[in-house]
Design brief:
The complex is a heterodimer.
Chain A (H helix, E strand, L loop, with lengths): L8 E4 L4 E5 L2 E4 L3 H12 L4 E4 L14 E3 L7 H9 L11 H20 L16 E3 H14 L3 E3 L4 E6 L5 E8 L4 E6 L2 E4 L19 H8 L4 E2 L6 E6 L14 E3 L15 H8 L4 E4 L5 H10 L5 H4 L10 E9 L6 E2 L13 E3 L7 H4 L6 H26 L8 E2 L15 H12 L2 H5 L3 H19 L6 H26 L22 E5 L5 E5 L2 H9 L1
Parallel strand pairs in A: 2-10, 3-4, 3-11, 4-7, 11-18
Antiparallel strand pairs in A: 1-2, 5-6, 8-9, 8-19, 9-10, 12-17, 12-20, 13-16, 14-15, 15-16, 20-21
Helix pairs in contact in A: 1-4, 1-10, 3-10, 5-14, 11-13, 11-14, 13-14
Chain B lengths: L1 E4 L9 H5 L5 E2 L6 E2 L10 H5 L5 E3 L11 H6 L5 H6 L21
Antiparallel strand pairs in B: 1-4, 2-3
Classes of the chains: A alpha+beta, B alpha+beta.
Chain lengths: 542, 106
């Protein structure tokens, strides 16, 4: 391999492992990771991007189509865009962040147009930039990432972070699944862009999203926020994986006998669907879409129709069974807490972007669609890449720096039996999939679930290292388990209903809880309340 | 889940092995094999990237499905997703056919 100027350097390639030296390491190759890698490279850093799967097809965006929170800069349009979501999000958003994300998303989208993304034009010839086709978008992002001089490691999941003696992040180490060996990257800064956690629910494109980045960040001491906003469920055909909830706003929902289920709706009535699914099958039919809408749907989201075309169902004229698949924090708003405009986490040298980071700053306690998440991925990716490059530059030389592996569960030898990843995955799913535990929350049920999850954590912590073939699944299971515990502890702490967080025992929004919930910890999970930025400003002004 | 690698069409280019985000395929000395079907997330992306229309992903996400390759070919279902998104020459215009802006805000 030739090392072009500005490329990350391959230090050694001995049997069983490969080591790179870089300024910035980006973990995750979806939208946020690729934007971060390109941004870091543009700011002069030598960058390695490691993806668990394949940069270009990995993650929730590549398999789908997504709206983008792209809003014309006219002040009244921007004001309306910000105001429209505040009630839905429970007034937890931060106006300053909303404004800067709208600015940055506008710039990045126009950059995509310059790079040749085939945005459509409307009947008057005006370009329309508020939607992206996932496969097309991510194929382009892979190409641009390579052109920026970034070294991409595909099929290379990270297992753990490296941290120096001062607690500064110094890189990461992981597996190369298709080579059957290990990688390590010595880096001056790391961006976590590994997405959220959808608990292997097969919601479209999300099975690589198991919270891996959360776990390794937490092992280095990172904190989380808004993890109670983690119970998004998407509508899909009962047998299939394609979740495109937008299209169900043209649907009617019926029970086994064909009677309309009162109040069932994709928007504002999804909880009715969840309750009905607890009693029996629920059917949908997109009978409110006229011929023109049907044509628009076909060209806008071709994969939506694959499950129907391949089973001989006409979704506009025939009923088909539906289910709700857990999207967890992928469409929730919880994630790594960021502490400044460069998307730094609480750990020096560690940055977060995309769904791995909290989206509370622009969404509060609710995301209804990909639009805001897509905007956040572009914006936070850009900022995190820049921030990481700047951190690396200021750190200067790191020759001779010692780095320590921070991995815990599944990575430390013990006398116990080996970690059983597959079984642990199912045990965690049993606690987070059921609507009566996660969709509809209540203190007693949350407490019971946490008792079981904490016991699973103790067992997993005492387990031995699994063999190489089972190691990734073991770490995924541990990440899902840790995520579930931050979610439910945060859900217990928020004794009200707000945003997507719904408590049967506290059904109303209660403004004594108009704050954010921070969480963290591995063996001992903790939560604490944190004031909103707006409250801090007004306090400072007094 | 992925069900078919059609031996008649597959040229063993191994693109599917590379692009599958959940590492379902393995290379062999001949054409790739579906080594870990249970890890398939039914995202259809291998089909999209296959230049020979040799792959078929069944829409059933949770259970294997018996499929008849001859019938799939007869129904021109192999490659149907690639044609629908405009990743073949004759339907390139569909790459810019997104009408989501007409659907948002419903």
């Amino acid at each position: 391999m030739t090392n072009l100027p500005g490329r990350a350097e391959k230090l050694s390639s001995s049997a069983g492992s490969v080591v790179f030296d870089a300024d910035v390491l980006v973990l995750g190759g979806g939208p946020a990771g690729t934007w971060a890698a390109i941004s870091a490279a543009e700011h002069g850093a030598r960058v390695v991007l490691a993806d668990k799967g394949f940069c270009g097809t990995s993650g929730a965006t590549a398999a789908a189509g997504t709206g983008v929170w792209y809003v014309d800069p006219a002040p009244e349009r921007r004001e309306a865009a910000m105001a429209s979501r505040e009630k839905l999000g429970g007034h937890l958003q931060d106006r300053r962040w909303m404004a800067r994300v709208l600015d940055r998303t506008y710039a990045q989208s126009n950059q995509l147009a310059d790079w040749g993304y085939p945005y459509p034009a409307d009947d008057d010839g005006r370009p329309q930039r508020n939607s992206l086709q996932g496969p097309e978008y991510m194929r382009l992002m892979r190409k641009r990432t390579k052109q920026a001089g970034v070294t991409i490691l595909d099929h290379s999941p990270a297992l753990e972070l490296l941290v120096d003696g001062n607690g500064v992040v110094a890189g990461a180490a992981g597996l190369r699944r298709q080579k059957g060996d290990r990688w390590a990257v010595n880096a001056k800064a790391v961006v976590i862009a590994t997405g959220g956690c959808a608990f292997l629910s097969k919601t479209l494109g999300s099975n690589v999203l198991t919270g891996d980045g959360y776990l390794l960040a937490a092992e280095a001491g990172a904190e989380f926020t808004s993890m109670e906003f983690s119970n998004a469920y998407a509508i899909s055909p009962a047998f299939g994986s394609v979740t495109k909830t937008l299209f169900y706003s043209w649907a009617s929902f019926t029970d086994e006998q064909g009677s309309v289920i009162p109040g069932a709706s994709s928007k504002g009535g999804r909880s009715v669907i969840a309750r009905a699914l607890g009693k029996g099958p629920v059917y949908a039919q997109l009978d409110q879409a006229d011929a023109e809408t049907q044509r628009h749907m076909r060209v806008s989201q071709p994969n939506f129709f694959l499950p129907f075309d391949r089973t001989g169902i006409d979704p506009f004229t025939q009923r088909f069974p539906v289910t709700l698949r857990l999207e967890g924090t992928v469409r929730g708003t919880g994630g790594l807490r960021i502490i400044d405009d460069s998307c730094a986490t609480t750990v020096p040298g560690l940055y977060a972007a995309g769904d791995a980071a909290t989206r509370e700053l622009i969404c509060g306690g609710f995301t209804g669609g990909g639009s805001h998440n897509a905007a956040w991925a572009m914006s936070s990716g850009y900022w995190a890449g820049h921030g990481a490059a700047e951190f690396a530059r200021q750190l200067g030389t790191t020759v001779g720096r010692e780095a320590f592996r921070r991995g815990t569960v599944g990575l430390r030898s013990s006398n116990g039996r080996a970690l059983q990843g597959g079984a642990l995955v199912r045990s965690v799913q049993d606690e987070v999939f059921p609507y009566e535990l996660n969709y509809f929350r209540e203190a007693g049920r949350l407490g019971g679930s946490l008792g079981r999850l904490d016991a699973l954590w103790t067992d997993a912590s005492n387990a031995d290292v699994p063999d190489e073939q089972e190691l990734l699944r073991g770490r995924e299971a541990a990440a899902m388990l840790a995520t579930a515990r931050w979610m439910y502890r945060s859900a217990l702490a928020r004794q009200e209903s707000r945003g997507m967080h719904r408590r049967d025992d506290y059904p109303e929004q209660d403004d004594r809880h108009l704050h954010l919930v921070t969480s963290g910890g591995l063996d001992d999970v903790w939560t604490s309340a944190r004031p909103l930025a707006s409250a801090q400003y007004s306090e400072a002004a007094e | 889940m992925i069900e078919v690698i059609d031996a008649e069409r597959c040229t063993a280019c191994d693109i599917c092995v590379s692009v599958c985000p959940t590492n379902v395929f393995d290379k062999t000395d001949g054409i790739p094999i579906i080594a870990r079907q249970g890890d398939c997330q039914t995202c259809f992306l291998c089909e999209l990237y296959c230049p020979e229309d040799a792959l078929f992903v069944s829409p059933f996400a949770d259970a294997p499905q018996a499929v008849d390759v001859a019938a799939l070919k007869e129904a021109t279902l192999l490659g149907s997703y690639r044609r629908a998104v405009g990743w073949v020459e004759e339907s390139r215009h569909l790459r810019a056919a997104d009408r989501s802006y007409r659907l948002f805000g419903h």
